[in-house]
Amino acid sequence: MAESLRLAAYVLTRNEEAKIRRAMTSLLKVTPQVVVVDSESTDETRAIAAELGADVVVHPFEGFSAQRNWALDYVKDRYQPDYVLSLDADEWMTDDLTEEISSRLADGALGDHNVYLFHRQIRFDGRTLRWGGFASTWLPRLFHIDAGRYETRTVNEPLAVPPAATVARLPGTLVNDDVDSWEGYIAKHNGYSTLEAQARVELRQGTAEKTPLADAIRRPYLRRRWLRQQVWDRLPARPALRFVQIYLIAGGFLDGRAGFRRALFEAWQEMCTDLKAEELERQGSKGAVQ
Fold it and tell me: What is the pTM of this model?
């Protein structure tokens, strides 16, 4: 039998007391080495995580890619794992996914590939979204500690891996549910639109990395990012197009009320991003990340 591999995990948090217990419980099924990198929460996030056995460290937020790369360096220096698992505070893994990971860890089969993709399932407004383009997303969440770094970007940061790295999909589901209150959801996504606007302006000014076409062809999970940079951000009336894309073209109406509301929220966030990007460009500055 092959030697078992070492796995560590990390979660980025800020005021996630309503969700961190669920994420931590999921991670502890596959590894006891869980790091919570907290961006100066003012609620009970750190206390709950520490109670559950997490290694809690505080690091001021400097953008998502910078935060994730800092977390990777911390995990590598402290635990020297073979593989690292990244989870958001509003996510958790189903039992079939955690069992698959544990089995591959124990027999060394995890070492067959450098990067593993998880199938993400989104729960919104009390319903699992099966239409609107939300049910077909695969994300790189488990990878060899030396297999990649996150591209320099404030939000929606892709994992950049070497061309020779092998990528595989794991059976099971990664569940995302970030609505604990509508007030919190709106505030969070308003913040995301600010970061997305800054990232858009940085791309237009040539101060941020663009996803190469070759990478988008080779790595399916990067194609959406390339299309957004090279095609979507140049189209007119993006908020209206976003609603039509999700609700009508991709069948979001089949998810009922939840599908309609999600399409509206996506269009609203697109509009917020457009307005903020225009404002930043008028100011002639990238602005400060808040």
Answer: 0.85
- 3-state DSSP: the chain helix, strand, coil percent, rounded to 5? 45, 20, 35
Nearest one of 203, 251, 246, 207 to 228, comparing CA atoms: 203
Q: Write out the two tokens for 229.
A: 């940079």
Q: Are 20 and 88 in contact (CB under 8 A)?
A: no
Is residue 170 very low, low, confident or very high in pLDDT (cuts 50, 70, 90)? very high
For 186, counting Cβ atoms within 10 Å of its Cβ (0-12 exposed, 13-18 middle, 19+ buried), the class is middle
Percent of the residues in the chain that have a pLDDT greater than 70, as a whole number: 89
Terminal Cα distance for the chain, rounded: 50
One-letter amino acid identity for 177? D
Under 8 Å CB-to-CB from 20, ≥6 apart: which residues?
11, 13, 36, 45, 48, 49, 89
| Closest of 27, 38, 31 to residue 4, by C-alpha | 31
Spatial CA neighbour of 150 closest among 139, 161, 142: 161
Predicted pLDDT of residue 289: 43
**H helix runs in 81-162, sequence order:** 95-107
Asked if the model's pLDDT at residue 218 lies above 70, the reply is no
Torsion of CA 120, 122, 123, 125, to 10 degrees: 170
Residue 174's DSSP bridge partners are 93, 120
Rounded Cα distance between 16 and 254, Å, is 31
